[in-house]
Amino acid sequence: MASSGSGYDLSAATFSPDGRIFQVEYAGKAVENAGTVIGIHAKDGVVLGVAKPLYHKMIVPTTASYKRIHTVDVHAGVATTGFLPDARVLVGRAQEEAADWQEHYGSKVPPHVLADRLGHYVHYFTLHGALRPFGASCVLGGYDVDTKECGLYMLEPNGAAYKYYGVATGKGKQVAKTELEKLNLHKQDAESSMDVATAVKNVAKILILLHKENKDSDGKPMELELSWICEASKWKHAPIPKDVLTAAKEWANEQLEEEDEDDEEEEEAMEEG
Amino acid sequence: MSEFTRPMEGATEIPPAGFNFENVSRNARLMEAWTNAKEQAEAMRKHHAQHGMDVAPMMAGGGYPNHMPLAKKTGTTIAGIVFKGGVVLGADTRATNGDEVAEKNCRKIHYVADNMYCCGAGTAADTDQTTALVASQLELLRMDLHLPHATSLRMKTAVTRISRLLFRYQGHVSAALILGGVDKAEGAQLYSIHPHGSSMRFAYTAMGSGSLAAISVLESAWEPDMEEADAVTLVQRAITAGIFNDLGSGSNCDICVIKNDGAVDYQRPSLTPNNTAPFRAAITRSSRMDMKPGTTPILDSKFVPHKGATLADVTVTEMEVS
Amino acid sequence: MMSASHSSMVNPMSSNPYGLKEGEVSTGTTILAMPFDGGVMLGADTRTSMGSYATSRSTDKITFLSDHIFCLRSGSAADTQAISDIVKHYLSHLTIETGREPLVKTAAHLMKNIVYSNKDSLSAGVIIAGWDPVEGGQVFNVVQGGSCLKQSFALGGSGSLFIYGLMDSEFKEGMTQDEARALVKKAISHAMARDGSSGGMVRTMTVTAEGNKRDVTPGNELPFGPVF
Q: Exposure string (b/e) for B154-171, b if CB count within 10 Å is 16 or more?
């Protein structure tokens, strides 16, 4: 890397002459090499999803010990990626912020405030030479109890906390983003037409697609962890029920097979043509 | 710990700034001890009397005082009104110490800022210190904000500073204040601030032990949009009512007029209804009471020069400067 | 059962119902707030006293907290002014951080926390009333000692004792704005007639989504009183 050896990458407190902070960029790399996280803001809720490669045969594939989606408060949850111990610190902070808010104000923290506060927290770690930035990123989904609206945010290692219609981060973020854009979530009318049920299927589909496309992971075991906030979950952050998840996976696999066949046909047609 | 925080050896310790209440509990214990001692002395006196002994040399109560030395409280009449052209503040000038008049011409209308003055009742030291402290804060604020005109300083700021200070001391700082002045934001304003830190805005108000006398004058004659001369006369009447009807108030009447353009007319004294000089002058005494020079004869006189060092005995050496 | 007045400092029948320190200014008071169809109505007398002397006869006890939330103060004037300033400060920060109007329950929660954690040094009985887009017009009573009660209507101050019966008999859910204002004025006038430390004028404040409206009724135009 061009930056290494220059001396400008030794601390997050130092800018390079062209105005970059390499330590923060390296933290971003930690996220780019880790599992994919996807979030969709549907018209009637939010969906969070992660694909968890089971690194070792002997890992017990349950969500309890190897959790990547955490509940922050009844109405908010985060899906994490990157250096997981770092992510767990972020989750802890988010839980603390939510609890403190309730203690102080006697109401639920609005998702945009929670995202903003986490952003401030993460950013603080990019200011001091004695601190290491977070090698983790997280996607925050929340329900605003006062306005009865959902919100989806992504926190980056540099402290940015933007709001999204649909977002992906981690190893497969490029492919996932292209797939998300195809869903036209960002077009107002289209956004209002996608419901959570469809969003769940699409999150599953994209995650499975990424797993299959990756030469390193194809064929190896993988677990999908999905959660949502919607009417069906009584506007609480909850794991997606097993039957819904199974149905989504089946639908995703069928879709992907169909698309494969279509592609093959197209290729054949091209060759013939 | 940084080296900067280590106290220098041998340096005199600077006492902490602000009000100090460290003697409050000591004084309470002292009072308790005195009360006990007094009771004992009284019992002893009774015992002696019962057994026919001489009690004349024994003081009643053993000579212990009945109370701690008290701070000087200004039994006071202060008042203020809003008129068409600004604000008029008024105050009497008596300071008392118990039943005694401690000062016949004391200043009770304090400077707070060029556009604000403040009448104080309560403990003289507390009203002096409180207004001086806030005056300093406001001047620093004015310089910090680069305000060209004094009227850019807000009355609201002064009221907030004062009432926060008084609230912090929970009524132990006995300052009952009437703050009057003008600012660009809200024009002429008048506030009363009580020792516990509550504040209220008024068109006319009075405070201090003579406030009942003063307020009855204001209640009967105040009206909106008065002319300056009428307003000053009204406040003079209110303060005079306090001076003559309240034992804690007396002597002269000071007046401070703050006009809408920020101009101040501080009249001290504005009225001297208790000027005794003419009465003293009117007393005619027999010329035989006068002592003429030479009444006491000089029998002898002698001059003895001082034996101490004189300048001529001192050798002055030039200071080493290179 | 929640008990509002277990604090030994409070004895409404004594001549010093708030346990004030000597020389402390009190809003010996009648305050009253009730929701109506579309908002909330607040009302208060205007007397402020120090012992038997009325320090002010035109006090405004309806105190601004945020655009749609107000509080009614009773007890020590210094204490209630200080704590409502603090709550006002918190709410303005909250408004900036969240980008929306604060909830009435949040204002009450903040007030309760302050009153409770300083219960030994405060004499304050505060009614928080206001409107928010989530729950509409609401009324909370933060009493001496620091408990916070959501009520269908709230009474406070030394004069409230005289009008509980009146309010119990005349208050109805879903009144119109005019009915609510008339009842508030009537109730406070009755309290002022019987309570020595309530008096002066009746101030009311109407808080609705559309905005707030103040109203003052002079002492000689009250719907009731004085009694001789």
A: bbebbbebbbebbbebeb
Helical residues (DSSP H) of A183-241, grouped into ranges: 188-191, 196-213
CATH fold of the domain at A17-263: Glutamine Phosphoribosylpyrophosphate, subunit 1, domain 1 (3.60.20)
Residue A220: what pLDDT?
75
Our measurement of the distance from residue A173's CA atom to the centroid of its chain's CA atoms, rounded to an integer in Å, reads 9
Chain A nearest CA to C160, separation (Å): 28
Whether residue B217 lies inside any domain: the answer is yes
| Cβ–Cβ below 8 Å for C25 and B199 | no
Domain assignment present for C65: yes
Q: Return contacts of B33-40, CB within 8 angstroms, 24+ apart.
A: B34/B64, B34/B65, B37/B62, B37/B64, B38/B62, B38/B64
Q: Is C170 domain-assigned?
A: yes
Strand partners, A226: A49
Instruction: Give the one of B163, B171, B205 whose C-beta lies nearest to C24's C-beta.
Output: B171
Chain B neighbours (≥3 Cβ pairs under 8 A) are C
Interface partners of chain C (CB pairs < 8 Å, 3 or more) are A, B
The torsion region of residue B299 among left (phi > 0), alpha (psi -120 to 50) and beta comes to alpha
Distance of CA A27 to the CA centre of its chain: 16
Q: The domain containing residue B42 runs over which residues?
A: 22-62
C-alpha A209 chain-centroid distance:
16
Give me the residue from B170, B194, B202 closest to C25, CB to CB: B194
Q: What is the pLDDT of residue A66?
A: 78
Our answer on whether B and A touch (3+ beta-carbon pairs < 8 Å) is no
CATH of the domain at C58: 3.60.20.10
Residues on C contacting A at a C-beta cutoff of 8 Å: 94, 97-100, 103, 105-106, 108-110, 113, 133-134
**Closest of A79, A73, A95, A88 to residue A237, by C-alpha:** A73
Q: Which tens digit of pLDDT belongs to each residue from A73-131?
A: 999 999 999 999 999 999 999 999 999 999 999 999 999 999 999 999 999 999 998 99
| Min Cα separation A117/chain C (Å) | 10
What distance lies between CA C90 and its chain's CA centroid?
20
- Could you write out the DSSP letters of every residue in B133-189? HHHHHHHHHHHHTT-SSGGGS-HHHHHHHHHHHHHHTTT-S-EEEEEEEEETTTEEE
The span from the CA of A70 to the CA of A39, in Å, is 14
One domain, residues B137 and B36: no
Which of A104, A107, A113 lies at the smallest CB-CB distance from C105?
A107
Residues of C in contact with A106 (CB under 8 A): 105-106, 108-110
C25 contacts on B by Cβ (under 8 Å): 194, 196, 198
A112 and chain C in contact, CB less than 8 A: yes
In chain C, residues with a C-beta closer than 8 Å to the C-beta of A105 are 94, 106, 109-110
What six digits make up the tokens of C70? 């107000």
pLDDT at residue B6 is higher than 50: no
Instruction: Please count the structural domains in chain C.
Output: 1
The interface pTM score, or ipTM, of the predicted complex is: 0.84
User: Which of C96, C105, C109 to mutate to test binding with chain A, by most A CBs within 10 Å of its CB?
Assistant: C109
Residue reference for tokens 């009512």: B241
A116/C106 Cβ within 8 A: no
For A14-30, the pLDDT digits (tens) are 999 999 999 999 999 99
Mutate to test the interface with A, among C98, C117, C131, C150 (most CBs of A within 10 A): C98
Tokens of B316: 């002055």
Out of C98, C105, C110, name the one closest to residue A110 (CB): C98
- Torsion-angle region of C136 (φ positive above 0: left; ψ -120 to 50: alpha; else: beta): left
Q: Please give the C-alpha separations between residue C31 and each of C19, C63, C125, C157, in angstroms, as whole numbers.
A: 18, 12, 10, 6
